[in-house]
Amino acid sequence: MKNSINKFLFALIILGCSLQVFSQQDEQISQAQKIANDFLVEEQIPGMAISVSKGGKLIWTEGFGFMDVENNIKVDPPTTQFRIASISKTLTAMGMGVLADDNKLDFDASLYTYVPDFPKKKYDFTLRQTAGHVAGIRHYNGNEFQLNKKMNIVEGLAIFKDDPLLFEPGSKYKYSTYGWNLLSVVVQNAANQEFNQFMQKKVFKPLKMKSTEVGISDMDIPNRTKFYIKRGGKAIIAPQVNNEFKVAGGGFISTSEDLAKFGEEFINPELVSKSTIKDLTTSLKTSDGKSTNYGVGIRVNTVGENTLRYSHSGGGMGASTFIAIYPEKDMVICVLTNLSGANVRKLVGELEGMFVL
Known about the structure:
Elements (H helix, E strand, L loop, with lengths): L1 H42 L3 E8 L2 E12 L4 E2 L7 E2 L3 H15 L9 H4 L12 H5 L21 H4 L20 H15 L3 H10 L8 E2 L13 E4 L2 E4 L9 H4 L1 E3 L1 H9 L9 H7 L18 E5 L3 E10 L2 E8 L4 E7 L6 H12 L2
Antiparallel strand pairs: 1-2, 1-12, 2-3, 4-8, 5-8, 6-7, 9-10, 10-11, 11-12
């Protein structure tokens, strides 16, 4: 009898603790919804999706506003596809990790090992240096960001391949999307498979990222959001651009829920080895010993009272995005919007303070 009473009391204690956790989580979500709605209004964002996961499970996922303002189609986090912009680099890095585990790619090998016909520069440089933005490859010039020319990834190299390196590789940090355009050719050659097919087969399908793909500009993709820019204080449809040639650095479309799944791979890897995750998330250093706070396709820093965070932001035509991964907390926060220039870092910081720190 006494044993039964003890079991009953223990069950009540467990139930009480569970209810307290759920109550706290409900309160967090309620506050987060208010913050998100205020942010949407403040930044005049047409549509936004937020997904937060803990322990590999979504604890909050919600759409705000519209994927198509004119037709009153609301954002739906499981299905609405946004341009993820430079978060594409992190996806490509995972593809490189798959090849590294298969001994088909060496991060510290020369670029010319994989792309021998790339014009020779004054200095040699490695895949890791290219992926970590210390190789000296330039970024956009002028209006290149708005290019709307149909090219494949190899054809896209023509934009920058004949330009000299900006500095001796390893000596400085200079962010470069074109470096990742070059890395997509590396992946394609190392895998002996077309880049986008490789990413679908070896990264997106295994991770069950069913709504992640190349954002082909002239294809009808029903769940893809419209893209907006702000002009004269109001959001209008953005000019059309073609990101296919630079898909590895900024051309994928995805959902916030797909990216939450993807972020979990950095915490509890199943697709690649733990040693490869460590490789991707180890910050590079310049030749003077300074940390760049950037590994292979992902930023590495600490927030709050020394909480480790892996992250990447994205800014594209009709896109402001952010993914934040907290391995010590087993949490992922992803925010996707369909407006250029929105300050998503601010929103992620507030959500981080609420859910993580």
